Write a sequence for this structure.
């Protein structure tokens, strides 16, 4: 059975979510109907809304359910009364492409946004501005200083959005403590079903309608609610909140992998190593060992890992996140992402290091033979 080390792409669906969805699918009722069947469906949606809100310290009425984290990002960036958008250079493509020509603020070699550059961009704004910076990067796991970003945005009367799709359920997320207006979430990153997301809209921020039609989701996102999917989202949110401490313990396993690989190849570069990162995430590169070779080799050895964002799979160019961090193309094309989760076992960590060592040795022998034949 394959060991799954790609939680940042999607997490295995939790048993709690499956149970909740099965129960919901056994019922019949439109959550907008006023009869008893409709009220039962509405109750399921409302319970899930409360659970999702609790995961990020928000009020239930601030949760707008939608079809994905990508949709939530698009709604946040395209439906606010802002004429200028400022983002970091390492945002998810859902944010990168949601608006026409955003101002991109550089990050340092450690993957953390340049706060001085952000303030400069804010000071130059002569119109209403939206700042959108992710809470934690999906590739490197580097955590951004959201509170400080929000403080600078408030100084210049800007609206603040953060994509917390990778952070929620892995670290503590609290919209009130962060003092942000908008926050995006996705169910499948926390063990819920794919195809369900949420936008958290706080502080009475004004939003225009994103999907036109009925009056669902405060009139902002029309369409009959996906009751079973939303119920699974809510159950996953409850489980993720309850398991925050145990998820943090994955840091030890993550560090064991990094230390083990460094013993095999001391030239390995771990991106964002000296910054706060998600406890489950490691983005690293072994010079001269191609990303695809590692992903395929480890897959054959029984481990699912990735070269980067699943949304960018199939591309041949270096990952733009690493490019923004100043990583040269050659090293970037050797990078892999390992992301652990609640199914990860200690025994799998040792086996992973052993199998990667074999892959590394085979590649070194192959390269040596190739050099000798020239």
């Amino acid at each position: 059975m394959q060991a799954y080390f790609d939680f940042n792409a999607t997490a295995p669906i939790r048993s709690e979510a499956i149970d909740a969805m099965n129960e919901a699918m056994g019922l019949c009722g439109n959550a907008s109907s006023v009869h008893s069947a409709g009220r039962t469906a509405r109750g399921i949606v409302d319970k899930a809304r409360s659970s999702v809100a609790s995961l990020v310290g928000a009020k239930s009425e601030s949760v707008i359910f939608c079809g994905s984290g990508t949709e939530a990002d698009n709604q946040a960036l395209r439906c606010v009364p802002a004429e200028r958008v400022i983002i970091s250079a390492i945002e998810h493509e859902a944010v990168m492409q949601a608006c026409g020509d955003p101002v991109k603020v550089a990050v340092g070699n450690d993957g953390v946004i340049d706060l001085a550059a952000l303030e400069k961009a804010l000071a130059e704004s002569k119109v209403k501005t939206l700042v959108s910076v992710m809470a934690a990067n999906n590739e490197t796991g580097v955590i951004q200083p959201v509170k400080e970003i929000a403080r600078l945005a408030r100084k210049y009367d800007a609206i603040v959005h953060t994509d917390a799709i990778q952070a929620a359920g892995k670290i503590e997320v609290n919209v009130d403590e962060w003092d942000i207006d908008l926050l995006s979430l996705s169910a499948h990153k926390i063990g819920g079903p794919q195809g369900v997301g949420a936008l958290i809209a706080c502080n009475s921020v004004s939003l225009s309608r994103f999907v036109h039609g009925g009056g669902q989701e405060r009139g902002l996102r029309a369409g009959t609610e996906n009751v079973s999917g939303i119920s699974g989202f809510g159950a996953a949110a409850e489980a993720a909140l309850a398991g925050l401490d145990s998820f943090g313990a994955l840091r030890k396993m993550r560090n064991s992998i990094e230390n083990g690989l460094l013993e095999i190849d001391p030239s390995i570069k771990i991106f964002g190593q000296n910054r706060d990162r998600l406890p489950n995430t490691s983005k690293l590169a072994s010079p001269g060992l191609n990303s695809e070779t590692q992903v395929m080799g480890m897959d054959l050895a029984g481990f699912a890992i990735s070269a980067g964002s699943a949304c960018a799979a199939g591309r041949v160019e270096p990952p733009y996140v690493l490019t923004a961090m100043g990583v040269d193309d050659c090293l970037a094309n050797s990078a892999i992402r390992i992301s652990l989760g609640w199914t990860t076992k200690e025994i799998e960590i040792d086996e992973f290091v052993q199998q990667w060592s074999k892959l590394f040795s085979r590649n070194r022998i192959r390269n040596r033979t190739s050099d000798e034949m020239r």
Notes: The mean pLDDT is 94. The domain at 3-9+246-367 is CATH 3.90.1150.10 (Aspartate Aminotransferase, domain 1). The two ends are 41 Å apart (CA to CA). The chain is about 40% helix and 15% strand.
